[in-house]
Amino acid sequence: MTATLARHGRVAVITLDNPPVNGLGLETRRALAAQVHAAEADPQIAAMVITGAGRVFSGGADIKEFGSPKAVAEPNLLSLILLVERATKPVVAAIHGTCMGGGLELSLGCHYRVAAPGASIALPEVKIGLVPGAGGTQRLPRALGVETALNMIVSGEPVRSEQLAQVPGQRLIDRLIEGELIAGAVAFAEEVADVRPLPRVRDLKAEHPQADAYFQFARNTARAMAKNFPAPVRCVDCVEQAVKAKFDEGMRFEREAFLGLMWTPECKALRHAFFAERAASKIADVPEDTPLRPVQRVAVIGAGTMGGGIAMNFLNAGIPVVMLEMKQEALERGVATIRKNYEAQVRKGKLKADKYEQRMALLSTTLSYADIGDADLAIEAVFEDMAVKQAVFEQLDAVMKPGAILATNTSTLDVNRIASFTRRSQDVIGTHFFSPANVMKLLEVVRGAETARDVLATVMALGKKIRKTCVVSGVCDGFIGNRMIEQYSRQAGFLLEEGCTPTQVDRAIEKFGFAMGPFRMGDLAGNDIGWYIRKRRYLEKPELRYSRTADLLCEMGRFGQKTGAGWHDYQAGRRDAIPSPVVEQMIADHRAALGITPRKISDEEIVHRLVYSLVNEAARLLEEGIAAKASDIDMVYLTGYGFPLHRGGPMCYADTQGLFNVVEDMKRFARNPHDDAAFWQPAPLLARLVAEGKTFNPA
C-alpha cells in the first residue's frame, strides 16, 4: 500500500507512503481514496488526518508518470481533492518537510491544515511552464490573500510555514504544531471533530480593493520578467478569475490554461530540462549505491581567478580548503579576491557577516606541496598547457595520500595523458569548472579511460553538494561543451566573411535567446584564449579551416574587454559592446582579399547555422560515446553556455524543429561555396534518426 491508515482513538491518521517525496502517482491516489472511504464508513472514526511518511508531506505529482496515461487516470488529482473536500467528517492536513504542487493543492482541499515549523510550501508548476492544475490558483488566494498567493504562484518559490502563518487574515495554516506533529494534529482533529459546518477553502472570498489595477500591474511585471515564457502571465489570469468569477468557473479557467500550456514549446523545453537535470546524475555502469570516498579536505592548486572560484564552492559547502601557489604574492592576490567576492555578497545582503568569517576560517594557504598531502581531493587549476599540467601531476602523485582523488580543471586537454603522469590513473578525473567558477552552475566531469567508478561517483556526489549540475563527458579535445562551441565559432567566422558584422551576428543569436552572442562571448572570455587554441589546431588538424578574421583581430591586440577592444569597442567601467568601425573595415578588407562579394544574410540563417553546427557536432559526440545522452548535452548548454532555457537546449530545439528539417537546412548550408561542406554532412547518428523518424530525446 502507498497510503496506510492507523487509528488514534476517534481519529484516523492516513499516511502517504510513496518515497522519496510521497508523489501523488496513480497507486498512491487510489490508496488514499480507499483509506478516506474506509474512514468515512467507520462509525468509530470522527475525523481524519492526512500526512506523509518520512521527512515530507508530499512533493506533488509523481514525476515518473508525467506525460503517461497514469497521470490523468481516475481518481485523478482533481477527483481526489473533491473526494476529500466532500468528506462528511473533518479532514486535517498535517504538513511537514515539503508540501509542494499537488501536495499543497491536496492540503487546500482538506478542511483544516496544521503544520510543523520549517515546512517548505510552494506551487512550483510555473518552473516547468505550467499553471497549477488542481485548484491551486483558485484556493490559495482564498486561503492566503491575493497578493501573497500570486507572488508564490508566479515565482514558484517555496515559503516557510511559520512565515505564512504570520500573514494577516490567512486561513492556510490553522495551527503551527511545535513538538511531535502527529500527536498535535490528532489533538487538533479531536477539537474540531464535532464542529459543523465543515469549513471549505472554496467557500472563502478572494478579494482585492483595486483588482483591475493590481492585476494589470502584475501582468505587465510578469511579461517583463519572463518575456519568453507564457506561464507566469497565465498564472496572473487564473488568480484574477479567483477574484472575479465563481469558484467552479475559476476552476474551469485554470484547467483550460493548464492544458493549453502543456503543449507549448516553452513548457516542453522546461519539462525536458527538469528531467534532463535529474537524468544527468545517472550513469549507466555506476550503480547508485556505489561506495563513495570521503572528501573532508580539498586542495586547490593555483590561486588565480579559476582557482579562487573553485575554492569558494567548497568553502560555501563547509569543506576546508588549502590553496597552493608558487609565490606568496600570488597567494595573497588570490585570498584578496575571495575576500572581495564575499564582502560584495555581505554588502548586498546575500551573505551574513558571521557566515563570511566562518568560510574564510576554512581557507588556508601554502607554498609547499608537502602541506597538501593529507587532502582527500586535489584540483589543479593552472595554466592550460600540457607541460605545466605534467609538472603539477607529477608533484601530486609524489605527495598525495593513497586513495586521494586527483582532478584537473583542464577545458580542452587530454585527461588520459594527464593521468599517465601519475602511477594512479584510476584516481585521476577531469573537473571542468566554468568561469566564474563560484557562480556558474555547470561542472563537466571528465571520465578518463581508467577512472575508477567510485572516483566518478564521489565527484558526482560532491558536485551536487557544492550545488553544481554535473554532466559526465568522455575524453576528447574540448569534451562536450568546448568541442561543440568550436564549430559554432567557426560558423560565426564564416558569417563575417560572407557579409555579416559582429554586431549583426550577436544581435540575431541574442534575439533567439542566448545570453550573449559569439563575438561578445569572445570579448568577455578573452580572444587570445581562442587564438592559443587555434594555433594548436593548425598543427594538429591542418585540414580544419577557420576564418582568418579572428587571428587578424588578435594580431591587432584586440583581446576583448580586458584590453578595452575586441570584436567590439568598450569604454572604461562599462561592458556595453559598441560596434567598431576598425573591426568592420578589417573584415571588409579580408573579405575583399578573398574575392568574396558580401551578401545579405537573414537572422534565421545566422541562428540556424550557429545552432545546427552545435547539433551536428553533438550528434558525433553521441555516436562516439563522449556524451551518454542527448539530454546531457542540453544540460551542458543550458547551464554552461547561455543557451535559452525556453528552447530546452540544442538537441531539444532540433527535435522541436524536426530533424528532417534540420538536415534539409544543413544540405543548403553545404552548397554554400564559402562554408565548410564536409562539416555539414549529417553525422551518422543524425542521418539515422531522420531515416527512422526518431528524435534525439525520447518523447
Automatic annotation (TrEMBL):
The keyword Disulfide bond does not apply. Keywords: Fatty acid metabolism, Isomerase, Lipid degradation, Lipid metabolism, Lyase, Multifunctional enzyme, NAD, Oxidoreductase, Peroxisome. It catalyses: a (3S)-3-hydroxyacyl-CoA + NAD(+) = a 3-oxoacyl-CoA + NADH + H(+). Its main location: other. Pathway: Lipid metabolism; fatty acid beta-oxidation. In the N-terminal section; belongs to the enoyl-CoA hydratase/isomerase family. Belongs to the enoyl-CoA hydratase/isomerase family. This is 3-hydroxyacyl-CoA dehydrogenase.
